Amino acid sequence: MEERDLTSGILNQVPIEIAISVGRARPIVRDLMKLRRDSVLVLDRRVDDPVELYIGDKLIARGMLQELEGEQAGFLGVRLTEIIDLRDAL
């Protein structure tokens, strides 16, 4: 049986969801129960800190958030600054 390259063919057509992590919060339950509309939950990162990109629970890249311009003005994007070797990550 002939071995196939997995990066070609039908696998290229499969959509995949990437989650972007901008930070974490660790409130205690008492403080969590006090949250209301317009409450602010402080994250463990600053606005200019890198974000992490995940497929499932696997880190695949890091990057910086940026606001898009032109036709996509107002939307957020991620400029990739580091890409993990996907052969190892997946």
TrEMBL record:
Transmembrane segments: none annotated. Coiled coil: none annotated. Keywords: Cell membrane, Chemotaxis, Flagellar rotation, Membrane. Gene3D superfamilies: SpoA-like. It holds the Pfam family FliMN_C. SUPFAM superfamilies: Surface presentation of antigens (SPOA). GO terms for molecular function: cytoskeletal motor activity. Residues 11-85 form the Flagellar motor switch protein FliN-like C-terminal domain. Its main location: membrane. GO terms for biological process: bacterial-type flagellum-dependent cell motility; chemotaxis. It is a peripheral membrane protein. It is found in: Cell membrane. GO terms for cellular component: bacterial-type flagellum basal body; plasma membrane. Belongs to the FliN/MopA/SpaO family. This is Flagellar motor switch protein FliN. It comes from Roseinatronobacter bogoriensis subsp. barguzinensis.
